[in-house]
Amino acid sequence: MREDNQSSKLDFILLGASSQKEQENFFFFLFLFIYPITLIGNLLIILAICSEIRLHNPMYFLLANLSLVDIFFCSVTIPKALANHLVGSKAISFGGCMAQMCFMLALGNTDSYILAAMAYDRAVAITRPLHYTTVMSPGACFLLVVGSWVMGNANAVPHTLLTARLSFCANKEVANFYCDIASLLKLSCSDIHFNVKMMYLGAGVFSLPLLCIIISYVRVFSTVLRVPSTKGVRKAFSTCGSHLTVVSLYYGTVMGMYFRPLTSYSLKDAVITVMYTAVTPMLNPFIYSLRNQDMKAALRKLFSKRISS
Ligand SMILES: *[C@@H]1O[C@H](CO)[C@@H](O)[C@H](O)[C@H]1NC(C)=O
């Protein structure tokens, strides 16, 4: 078993989500419980959507892509946290730490752009139902997904390169269970003024999709209030509740974390990061499938096909 004090001088130490032993065990079992549920839940969503021809439309393709991002998103942090706890080590290599930071930023941003694409999709379906199939064509849908990945990476790679250039001196204890940009900047012994400015700029860019979501839903609600009884509108509106729940969970926790001064960060905040890194990706499949009859039917069909074959 590798001891912390034997780890390389270049390694970082991940303090975990808590400083107390009992709480550490609590988070270990929480992650052990959450991770398989997240993987299976999101995988089932993807399988159900891909195998059901009736769900081959933009709304469900975007949902399947969201599930795909969520699978990657929680796989960047949780397996490492679980493995470290099992072998009794807290070390993470410099490269591993930078990779973790980069993937978290990229996937987190991609997630928010896909949520924005989903809001736009609903806005088109409700405000311009007659043009829906031409506006949300397969090509446009593909472009929205690729665009989300490109924008996500564009808001991750520069921050990672800027952080990798910093010097880290004696203190290498990251006050979180993964290498998160704010915790790393706090540790550095270089001048971080520029990095901090860039981080806030990045947080601003991260909010652009939220602006798009808000505009989309203002248009959705104004249309629904004007023509409340149309059957098509009501059907298109039925998934908006689930979508808004996911958006508020995700943005609420991320903004609670990043929209404040760097000096106020502490280990306590690791609990907030647990919310958006682990809990939200786990809840997404349930939020979308429990209230959605088409999704439930597709899942039932998926299971009965497996059982009969
Ligand atoms: C993601 O979206 C694209 C474009 O609509 C679609 O072709 C693809 O099947 C989706 N991915 C998944 C995993 O469903």
TrEMBL record:
A molecular-function term among this protein's GO annotations: olfactory receptor activity
Principal place of residence: membrane
Short name of one Pfam family: 7tm_4
Keyword Iron-sulfur attributed: no
PROSITE patterns: G_PROTEIN_RECEP_F1_2
Biological process, per Gene Ontology: signal transduction
Top-level division of the source organism's lineage: Eukaryota
Residue stretches spanning the membrane: 26-47, 59-78, 98-120, 132-152, 198-218, 239-259, 271-290
Start and end residues of each G-protein coupled receptors family 1 profile domain: 41-288
Signal peptide: none
GO cellular component terms, A-Z: plasma membrane
Entry keyword set: Cell membrane, Disulfide bond, G-protein coupled receptor, Membrane, Olfaction, Receptor, Sensory transduction, Transducer, Transmembrane, Transmembrane helix
Membrane topology: Multi-pass membrane protein
Family (UniProt): Belongs to the G-protein coupled receptor 1 family.
Function field: Odorant receptor. Putative odorant or sperm cell receptor.
Protein name per its UniProtKB record: G-protein coupled receptors family 1 profile domain-containing protein
